[in-house]
Amino acid sequence: MASNLTLSSSYNAKMNPDIQNERNKATFDYINLTYLIDGSKEKTERRRYIQSLVENDPDFQHKPLAFMTREERYSNSIRKAILAVKKMDALGLNDPWEMEIYKGAANRSEDPSLTLHASMFLHAIINQMDTDQQAKWSEQTFGYTIIGTYAQTEMGHGTHLRGLETTATFDPKTNEFVLHSPTLSSIKWWPGNLGKTVTHAAVAAQLYSQGKCHGVHMFMVQLRSLEDHQPLPGIELGDIGPKLGYSNIDNGFLRLKNYRIPYDNMFMKYSKVQRDGTYVKPPRAKLTYGSMVLIRSFIVGSMGAQLAKGATISIRYSAVRRQSEMELGAQEPQVLDFQSQQLKLLPYLATAYAFIFAGKKMKDTYIQSSNAISEGDFSVMPELHATSAGLKAFTSWVANEGLEIQRMSCGGHGYSQASGFPELYATTVPACTYEGENTVMMLQTARFLMKCMTRASNGEKLHGACSYMSERVPSRSQASSLEHFLNNNFIIQAYKHRAYRMATAAAMSVQEQLKKDKPHHEAWNNSHFHLLKASEAHCHLYIVNNFYEYVMESDTPPSVKDVTLTLFHLYALHGISSKKGDFLHDGYFNGNQIDLVEKQIIQLIAKLRPNCLALVDAFDFSDTILDSVLGRYDGNVYENLYKWAKSCPMNKKEVPDAYGKYIKPFLMENRSKL
């Protein structure tokens, strides 16, 4: 059932017949699902219009990224970032969502340059500076008279913020802070655009005053001259070199050598140093970490978007690719018709939707919590920190696993840069370590879970993400038929049971260690196995529960609700099948029930098969943004793969320079021996 709206005029080109046949099979109009993803019909139309402004603008056109050197990619990325700022200003685009759409379209599959300037740097100014400081620095940041980044991670310390070594010592004689990198491991390492681009940085450092350390605080530090961009005296800067991905970004290092900054450059909304050196502490110590929580909260949805791109590429290509035989002498079947291919791809298609919808919930939660914090209500902080940390880890792990399966499902062509997967994977995998290494993030969530378990065991009724700990969860599932495994209550109860059991096992492990007279830190370390499993089960439940609520609360046509509910059932049951040991362990499910789960998965796969193309079309990625020859909307893969290869810079010369330098002398030398 094709939509009467098209993504761009280029999609009116001749379609690959297999792709067109797939679209004709759909039982729903995909555009209604696109409206659900975007939030409304009006938002979809506005997004498409903004994207079209970029895609039809010749200033944003360039050769394929795969054919650029790193220096070219960096320069091109900065060019587009600055161009986008100018053009958005000329267009009057100032809504954050619209600006994000515009910049995303301009940068295609790359992570945009200057991202940290408009996110963590600006967020720190608005949320951690006092009113007078905000007035000064936000004007310069919004006006781009300076360019900033967020410098927290060091060569030797990342996730463990309390261990940061950079120091900021207050000198009451000059009314200045002296910033210093005392060791090699204290050099700031990794901040985006730090290497060659920015003029300023929000720097995290250990505050010293009156001979005492008061923990990590933020400081505004000018790094380069605003006249010639040279590093200022006492500042050493540079690019950290090539990485697995992010080739367009100059991730950098910063070494501070007793560098002095003015008194007013300390972020002083919640804590400050008085002129005589007296320290005034914040109401909550972790208020300094707000910018990290912002990024973690938004990672959930971005991991869904990355999986959605992978699903679009792999499913469209699997509809075009014909290979092997099902029936002797018959036409080679579409790869997508093999059940094994469906079992690889469709669960991650469902996962993409689950993460996208969970990302919307997480973003709303962050905004609501931030508003409460700004009004002095800090009670929301523990759950916000714990949920954002755990979901960041859970979704990024799954996304990277899924992208690799999607890539391999494209066979040999998935290895080519033309597929889009190398760039897609390289921009997704860092999420497992930036803004907190995933294992450490899961353990932070576990700390919160253990506190909640204590409260629940004391009879307190819990609310929010841990409410299941104070509910009466059945100890055995009563499901006895295939239909029971489409019963949403049965499914969610199973996940609640698993999460509660895992949390209980983790709490018991810690207690058993303490009873052996182990100090708390050792008891905790010896219980990591159970604590990590508890966090994973908790996050999995959050995604399942949120997916179901989002689908049931959505105002969409019955055909769309039916297909999204099918996606929910596939996501949830595939999770049970993948983690069957957790559900079998204490007898909540028995072997026969797991057999029913897996039979139901096969039925759900078959039910979704006619809608595969419509479900990826609903993500609404234009060819420009998807940046994949294999995932083209029109399905004309082979002719365009050939064109892509022909345009490779190495093919500009029929005979390479290496022939004259190495190949010819080698051949001539060998021939002379004959």
* Low-pLDDT stretches: 1-12
- Alpha-beta content class: alpha+beta
CATH architecture of the domain at 146-282, please?
Beta Barrel
Tell me the helix content.
Answer: 40-55%
Main β sheet profile: 6 strands, mixed
User: What distance separates the N and C termini?
Assistant: 69 Å
Oligomer category: single chain
* Percent range for β-strand residues: 5-15%
Q: Class of the domain at 146-282, according to the CATH hierarchy?
A: Mainly Beta
The CATH superfamily of the domain at 146-282 turns out to be Butyryl-CoA Dehydrogenase, subunit A, domain 2
Q: What is the overall shape? A: globular
Provide the CATH topology of the domain at 146-282.
Butyryl-CoA Dehydrogenase, subunit A, domain 2
Kindly state the number of beta strands: 11
Continuous helix count? 22
Quick check: average pLDDT?
Answer: 93
Rg on CA atoms, Å: 27 Å
Offer a few descriptive terms:
674 residues; alpha+beta; six-stranded mixed beta sheet; three-stranded antiparallel beta sheet; globular; disordered N terminus
Structure description:
- This protein has 674 residues and is an alpha+beta fold.
- The chain has a domain at 146-282: Butyryl-CoA Dehydrogenase, subunit A, domain 2.
- Helix content is 53%, strand content 8%.
- Strands 1, 2, 3, 5, 6 and 9 form a six-stranded mixed β-sheet that branches. A three-stranded antiparallel β-sheet has the order 4-8-7, with no helix packed on it. Strands 10-11 form a two-stranded antiparallel sheet.
- It is globular and about 90 Å long.
- The N and C termini lie far apart (69 Å).
- Mean pLDDT is 93; it is low at 1-12.
